[in-house]
Design a protein that fits this description.
Blueprint lengths: L1 E9 L5 E10 L4 E5 L6 H8 L7 E6 L2 E2 L5 H5 L2 E4 L11 H5 L1 H5 L4 H14 L4 H4 L9 H12 L6 E5 L7 H18 L2 E6 L2 H7 L2 E6 L3 E6 L1 H6 L4 H7 L3 H5 L15 E2 L5 H9 L6 E4 L5 E5 L25 E3 L4 H11 L4 E5 L2 E6 L1 H11 L8
Parallel strand pairs: 3-8, 3-9, 6-7, 7-8, 11-12, 14-15
Antiparallel strand pairs: 1-2, 1-4, 4-5, 9-10, 12-13, 15-16
Helix pairs in contact: 5-7, 14-15
Length: 377
């Protein structure tokens, strides 16, 4: 979809903003440009829609050199979101979102329907927000409107220049989650600029790390950039705690899970002791007939037989406070361990129990995510 071929941008004084950049961004990919201030991230972004012209090299959009395309027509095919939302202050929310459809000549009914759908898509009730002015919105709400406006003409490409950088951390995390939801639904080709490696890791399918002078140091998946930084610069930029960051991009897999004995609630504590004695575990998991997790039991607990002499495990069940679902990351599992001071985390597929994660299993999964030890330390 987008390709940079030996793209260089020089300043008037001979300085270099971007230096011989070769980079391809595939259809539906979210590629994050990350690096310190002055490394050419925004310049690279703005060369796509010809707000900046390269000194040499080519930027290709669907195989066509953007330098040969009328810039106005080009920009109507590209959504653009900036840090401060950039809304027209004198226009209401609906009018801001309708700006591009109107430029494209859509009729009123089609434009009105598009505005309604987009506001709902970004989590803003059209009945509540459509007639408000930008100054009546919070920073996070303004950014949502900015994203909706960028999507107005249904462009195949989105350029996003630190769009969440000006909002508070809580709103920023919420906006990141919302944008990932949108991207899963819309499947746009996105180039996203940030200086924050945490944001890059959270959002990117791939991360392109740039250093001063606009030199591309590495482009790869978040797990590879964190686990195998290609150069000393990348290793220094992503930080010494990159192993912890890698938890956020490493999914839980079935091979990561341990499988202690599983019992039904009507089993006896004698059954629990026998099941545990047959393996290396110190406790057993209790599930109901539908495979839903009830908790765990310690076979060494003192007996508490009922009137009929039975000592069912149901009388000894402890709740699993630490729980995650199979579609969450190792970071979520680790957070649960820390929050509940737990030695294991129950893993569920919806409401069905599938296994447990222990600290040892979590560490093994982290090593597995990059095939062993990182290339640079």
């Amino acid at each position: 979809m987008l390709r940079f071929e030996q793209v260089t941008k020089r300043y008037g004084d001979g300085g270099v903003a971007v230096d011989h950049l070769d980079l391809e961004v595939g259809d539906g990919e979210l590629c994050v440009l990350v690096g310190p201030s002055g490394c050419g991230k925004t310049t690279t972004l703005r060369m796509v829609n010809r707000l900046v012209e390269p000194t040499s090299g080519r930027v290709l959009f669907d195989g066509e050199d953007v330098a040969t395309v009328d810039p106005v027509a080009l920009r109507r095919r590209i959504g653009y979101v900036i840090q401060q939302a950039g809304l027209f202050p004198h226009l209401r929310v609906a009018e801001n979102v309708a700006a591009v459809p109107r430029l494209l000549g859509w009729d009123k009914a089609r434009t009105r329907a598009r505005v309604h759908d987009l506001l709902e898509l970004v989590g803003l009730d059209p009945d509540q927000y459509a007639r408000r002015y930008p100054h009546e919105l919070s920073g996070g709400q303004q950014q949502r409107v900015g994203v909706a406006r960028a999507l107005g003409g249904d462009p195949p490409v989105l350029l996003m220049d630190e769009p969440f950088g000006a909002v508070d951390p809580i709103a920023r995390e919420r906006l990141q989650s919302e944008f990932l939801r949108l991207q899963a639904h819309l499947d746009k080709t996105v180039i996203f600029v940030t200086h924050d490696i945490e944001e890059a890791v959270t959002l990117g399918d791939r991360i392109a790390v740039l250093r001063q002078g606009g030199v591309l140091e590495q482009v790869d998946t978040p797990a590879e950039v964190l686990g195998r930084p290609a150069t000393a610069f990348v290793a220094d930029f992503v930080g010494a705690d990159r192993g912890l960051r890698r938890l956020a991009v490493t999914p839980i897999e079935s091979t990561d899970l341990q499988q202690p004995p599983v019992l039904h609630p009507d089993a006896s504590m004698a059954d629990a002791r026998a099941a545990v004695a047959a393996g290396d575990d110190r406790w057993a998991v209790v599930v109901d007939g539908g495979g839903r997790l009830m908790g765990w039991v310690d076979p060494d607990e003192p007996a508490s037989a009922s009137a009929d002499g039975a000592d069912a495990v149901a009388r000894h069940v402890h709740t699993f406070d630490a729980r995650v679902t199979v579609d969450e990351s190792l970071k979520a599992a680790f957070a649960e361990m820390l929050q509940h001071d737990a030695g294991w985390v129950a893993v569920l597929d919806r409401d069905r129990y599938v296994g447990v994660l222990t600290p040892d299993a979590l560490h093994a999964a982290l090593r597995r995510s990059v095939g062993g030890e990182p290339a640079l330390r």
